[in-house]
Amino acid sequence: MATSAEAPGGVRAAKLRKTLLGYVPIESPFYRYHPVTRLIMFVFFGVVPIFIDMPEINFALVVCTILLLVWGQADLKRLRIYMPMIVTIAIFMFLVVILAPGNDPTFTPIHIGPLTIYYQPVYFTFASYWRLMAMLFGTILYFSTNRERDMLVALRSLKLPFLASYVVGFSIRAAGMFMEDFNTIREAEQARGLDKSALKLGDQVKLYVMYLVPLFSIALRRADEISHALFARGYNFTGRVGHGNKRSDYILTQYTMTGMDWLVIAVLMTLFVGAAVAEYGFGAFRLPHSPINILLHHLLGLGWPS
Amino acid sequence: MTNAVVIKDLEWKYEHTTQFALRGINLEIPENTFLGIVGANEQGKTTLINSICGLIPHSFNGVYRGSVEIYGSPVLKMSGLEIATQVGLVFADPEAQFTAMTVEEELVFGLENTGYDLGKIKERLDWAVGVTMIGDLLDKSPYDISGGQKQRMAIACVLAMNPPIIIMDEPTSMIDPLGKQFIFDILRKLKDAGDRTIIVVEHNIEQLAPLADQLLLMQDGQIARMAPPAHFFDDLPNIVGSGVYPPEVTSFAYWLKQSGYVPPEQVLPNRFDEGVTLMQDALRNARDNR
Amino acid sequence: MASMASTASTQTNVWAIEPGEIRKPGIIHVVILALFTGIGIVVGTFGSLAVPIGFVSAFWPGQAVQSIGSIWFGGWGAIASFLFPLISNSLSGSAPLPVSIAYIPGNLAQGIIAAIAFRIFKSDPSLRTSKDWIVWILLGAILPNAIGAIWGTGVLLAFGLVTSAAALTTVLGWFIGNSIPSIILGSIILKFVSPLVLRSKAFCKGWWA
Description:
By secondary structure, chain A is mainly α. Helices cover 60% and strands 5% of the residues of chain A. Chain A is built from 9 helices and 4 strands; from the N terminus they run ββαααββαααααα. In chain A, the strands form 2 sheets. Chain A has a two-stranded antiparallel ribbon with strand order 1-2. A two-stranded antiparallel sheet of chain A has the order 3-4. Chain A is globular and about 75 Å long. In chain A, 36% of the residues are buried. By secondary structure, chain C is mainly α. Chain C is 73% helix and 2% strand. Chain C has helices at residues 2-12, 27-50, 62-92, 97-120, 130-158, 167-199, and strands at 52-53, 56-57. A two-stranded antiparallel sheet of chain C has the order 1-2. In chain C, helix 3 (62-92) runs antiparallel to helix 4 and helix 3 packs across helix 6. Chain C is globular. Chain C starts with a helix and ends in a 10-residue tail after the last helix.
């Protein structure tokens, strides 16, 4: 639900919502769904690839998450920060499997110039890479379209203990504060004429290391301030108020599960269970069923994969 | 009259320090009165209010002697939750009291902690938002609003919890003149309602004095003076010597008094309109005497 | 002689509970858990993004946060040491949630071993003596990173993300990529920030207070 409902004292709704990884328009279709639905979607995309070896299906899941990002009006430019990771993971995985393929006489050697690679471990690595990508894009989807508040609401709706949900929410906020403090220190140095580009790499590293001391000092002061504020507002560990009653959760009342939420959850759960049963009961998503694997086997004259 | 706060022989020394920050504090604050606390920096003002709201000794390490009672209950033995239902504290730095990610969550956080049911929470939220006029900020991050808005939100958080005692530690120290006026307007509304004990630490005596029933001067960890605003500045040179500057109208009236233009028994004004009346009387007397 | 030794150890033992000293877990500890998790999220995320080599970073300063957090804040720091990688791995894209969950025992070990070592050997987090330095480098940085690297590689093997033939390379990359920042950053932070932490109410002489 959108939290921009008419409020006492005036109405001024923000156009964009700051999510954990960027901004999403307040009209994003994602916000028609309850945070619990969105969390279950995250778990679905994060866990289902474990059941699936076939790179084609994991690739389809990646495409699906990208389409969901587009549908949710998320800023796809933010994905650029993941490019180094996506590329280096691929380099790492393939380099390792080419240089250290293992010693198995059943492996099929392929000679590329002076280099000999082995088909089976390389294809396994190719499949593993797409499984990893599917899981990563599921994570990116969630963090790009949800706020700390959405995560908290979902966790509390799922009855996570109050203390645990509070720590999770607050730690994400603390990360933001830490970044802000870091920027403040950097800006202060620039204001005093520090030209980082003129520094040697070693000096730059030294500079970053030295940032940590004031940053940790600020964090300690903050810990004091926040604990005083929590004390002054009657906070306790237990999530209980006087006479042992459970504390009210006002924010949860701002969200309601609709029929569409239940439908989406039912579909996701069915697909999840279906995927698990298909894999562990019938081996439906294993590499021998991969069309690309079958094609390559035939091209290499290896017959049907087993 | 019932006392909201009674402090007896209070002494406090912070851990890792050598000197007591509070020494021999004895104080009674009657229910539903307005106490203004003034003094130079590092004289014990914040330490005193931290003792009243229980942060001392519950959240600080140190040596604690004497007692602080809230409506007859010793703070030392009360839980944080019990204290929070009795005393609300607005911090000098509003950002220091943020605990949530949106203004709305921030406002309801204390209400949730102190056991209000959902209907009452909504009612209190709407009321506090109305008094402080922050309805358009509910969906925003507390970190993304202006200094004045932050302070209004901090006050709204405390008002929402509806404690019988409200303490504000330099509530206008970090905001612009317009924002300051807004805060004092809220204080005026609270004072006029007359159903709360209000304790405010503030350097802006010009605005504080007209609101306060009593002014208290902290100096060197002790209560150096406590009197109604009309008599607080009777010993003006000593007050100024302690780093506290009276309202200009009071200083001017004091000069008139010292110079013989107004009679020695004249009560010193602390509001501009009182000063105008005093001046008119002085001019009339001068004309009549001529 | 015995009494002299005892006096010396009392002077430098920051872990000793003074007579009459009451230490109880409080709100400050929950706050420090969350704050340290937040710091770990930032340091871990940017560490992974800065110098990535596949699943492991060639310079992951998150490990330094795990060790020093556990040394200073006992159990609270230990919890933070496995909590923040769950989020920082997701944000940086270095590991999906199921893999991060499987990393938990390794991340816990990467934090808690330093805390145990400092408490057993009564080492000062401000690294004042050569004994403090030895305990820090051997038991606070090298041993936990060795255990963490072995566990983490085991997880990657279990998820089929590396082949068994690549396991040794991964262990070494992991170990080196964590140990170097741990020693460099950890030493600086311990040396310069510990005196401040020891005066704070958040510092845990025991495991929870």
